[in-house]
Amino acid sequence: MGPTASGKTGVAVELAQTLPVEIISVDSALVYRDMNIGTAKPDAPTLAKAPHHLIDILDPTEAYSAAAFRHDALRLMYDIVARKKIPLLVGGTMLYFKALREGLSNLPQSDPAVRAALNAEIAQHGIRHLHQQLAQVDAKTATRLHPTDTQRIQRAMEIYRITGSPMSGLIGPQQNTALPCRIIPIALIPGDRAQLHARIATRFKTMLELGLVDELHMLRKKYSLHARMPAMRCVGYRQAWQFMEGEINDVQLLETGTAATRQLAKRQLTWLRAMQDNIELDCLRPDLAQKAISVLSQLLIT
Q1: How many angstroms separate the Cα of 123 from the Cα of each of 30, 112, 118, 130, 239?
Q2: d(Cα 26, Cα 87) in Å, to the nearest integer?
Q3: At what angle do helices 94-102 and 66-82 cross, to 10 degrees?
Q4: Which backbone phi and psi does 144 adopt, to 5 degrees?
Q5: 229 near 31, Cβ under 8 Å?
Q6: Burial degree of 34 (CB within 10 A; 0-12, 13-18, 19+)
Q7: What is the mean pLDDT of residues 187-204?
Q8: Residue 238: CB partners within 8 Å, gap ≥ 6?
Q9: Is the sign of the CA dihedral 277, 152, 75, 176 positive or negative?
Q10: 112-170 in CATH: which number?
C-alpha cells in the first residue's frame, strides 16, 4: 500500500521476480480499459514480466465498487493460494483494502430516481450545497468527507433519502467470506513529504507530455462519457476534461492536476497512518525493493 507516486508498482514487479507471488491490483482507476496514461498503468513489457489481476476489466462507462472489488479479489486470492502461490495486493485505493479486510455493511442498492434527483441538485447548486445538507442529517459522515467529494457525498445522501437513516448509523459488519491467508500489510510512506510532492509534479507533467489530453479525446470518441462518471472523476482525467471544455487553460491544467494529485496522496497517507499494524518502509530509500524483499522473506518463513 502507499500513496500515488510512492513506487508501489516497481516494488511489486521486483517482488514478483523473487517470491512466488501473483499481483492483484487494488486501484479503482486501473480497472478501466484504454485509460493508460492518466492512471500510470503498467506498460505491456511490465505486465509481461509481472502480470496483474484486475486491470482492464471494465469500460470507462461502467462503475466498480468496493463490494465488487472484494468479491473479485477474494475469488482471485483463493485461486492463487490453490496454485500454491501468494496473493500480492498492490495499490492505493484504501477503501478497497478496508473492504477486503473488514467486510462490508448492509447498505441499500442505488436507486436511479433518487440518484437522478441528487444529480440535478448538484448541477443546480453544487456539491458543497449537498455536503451542507448531509451535515444536517449525518454530521459524522459529513465530517469524514471532503466537501468536494461528489461521489461519496452523493452516496451518503442517497442512503439517507432511501432509508430515512444516516449512513453512519447503518454501517456495521456483515458476515463475509474469510480471507484465505494471513495479512502482512506493508505501507510505503515518504520520509520527506516534499520529495513525494516533487515526484508527483514530475509525474503529472510527464503524463501531459505523453498525451493525457489526447487520450481523453480518444476516450470521448470511443465511449459515451460524461463528466460525472466515476472513471471521469479520476484525478487527472477530471482536470483534462475541464481543459477540453475550455474551463481552464494549459497552465491551470498542470497546476490543478498536480494539486489534485497531492490531495489524493494526502488522503491516502491519512488512511495509512490510521492503520495500526502496518510495516512502514520509506518509499524514498534507494534500496526500497530490496528492503521489501528482505522484510517479506523473513516474515514468510515465520
Answers
A1: 28, 16, 9, 11, 18
A2: 12
A3: 70
A4: -75, -25
A5: no
A6: middle
A7: 98
A8: 227, 232, 260
A9: positive
A10: 1.10.20.140
CB atoms within 10 A of CB 206: 12
pTM for the whole structure: 0.81
Q: Do 264 and 4 touch, CB atoms closer than 8 A?
A: yes
For residue 172, name the pLDDT band (cuts at 50, 70, 90). low
8-105+175-300 is a CATH 2.40.100.10 domain:
no
Measured between alpha carbons, how far is 263 from 193 in angstroms, rounded to an integer?
12
**CA 240/CA 297 separation, integer angstroms:** 42
Give the span between the Cα atoms of 264 and 247, in whole angstroms. 22
Give the cell for residue 61: 462507462
DSSP lists the bridge partners of residue 188 as 281
pLDDT at 196: 98
The grid coordinates of residue 25 equal 491490483
DSSP 8-state class, residue 248: S
Highest mean pLDDT among 9-23, 60-74, 95-109: 9-23
3-state DSSP assignment of residue 182? coil
Min mean pLDDT across 37-41, 46-50, 113-117, 209-213 is at 113-117
Residue with cell 483534462: 240
3-class DSSP state of 247? coil
Q: Indicate the domain borders of the chain.
A: 8-105+175-300, 112-170
